């Protein structure tokens, strides 16, 4: 039997982790696209 506060903290932690992963993927994608523009833009 889990304590409700611990259960909530675990959900919060995994949600924060997911958001962080998505944010990192977006940043990587944006910098990758910008690099492509610099390579092929000239």
TrEMBL record:
<keyword id="KW-1133">Transmembrane helix</keyword>
<protein>
    <submittedName>
        <fullName>Uncharacterized protein</fullName>
    </submittedName>
</protein>
<keyword id="KW-0812">Transmembrane</keyword>
<feature type="transmembrane region" description="Helical">
    <location>
        <begin position="12"/>
        <end position="33"/>
    </location>
</feature>
<keyword id="KW-0472">Membrane</keyword>
